[in-house]
Design brief:
With about 100 residues, the protein is an alpha+beta fold. Helices cover about 30% and strands about 25% of the residues. The protein has a single domain, classed as Alpha-Beta Plaits, CATH 3.30.70. InterPro entries: CRISPR_associated_Cas2, Virulence_VapD/CRISPR_Cas2.
């Protein structure tokens, strides 16, 4: 399944800036950044649960916001891109 991870981490303190870096590292280890605080991750259900657990361990719920959108693999679903960034096609051929 495709998971969209969006977060808003308070960076008013040094601790908040550290949390922001840790949240980004967790996301980078699982998916690809498509905007500054938005990642696309292709995972199975167990991977989704692990990703959620890792992210919840990093955020401060009273100051930060974390949203995870599960996009089911349905025929006909599409993502329209506009602008400079071009995402990696996970379903396309892998060229090294």
């Amino acid at each position: 399944m495709l998971v969209i991870v969006c977060y808003d981490v308070s960076t008013e303190t040094a601790a908040g800036r550290r949390r922001l870096r840790r949240v980004a590292k967790v996301c980078e280890s699982t998916g690809q950044r498509v905007q500054k605080s938005v990642f696309e991750c292709r995972v199975e259900l167990s991977g989704f649960e692990e990703l959620e657990r890792k992210l919840l361990a990093e955020i401060e719920p009273t100051q930060d916001c974390l949203r995870l959108y599960r996009v089911p693999d349905v025929r006909g679903a599409e993502v329209r891109e506009h602008g400079h960034f071009k995402a990696v096609d996970f379903d396309g051929p892998l060229v090294l």
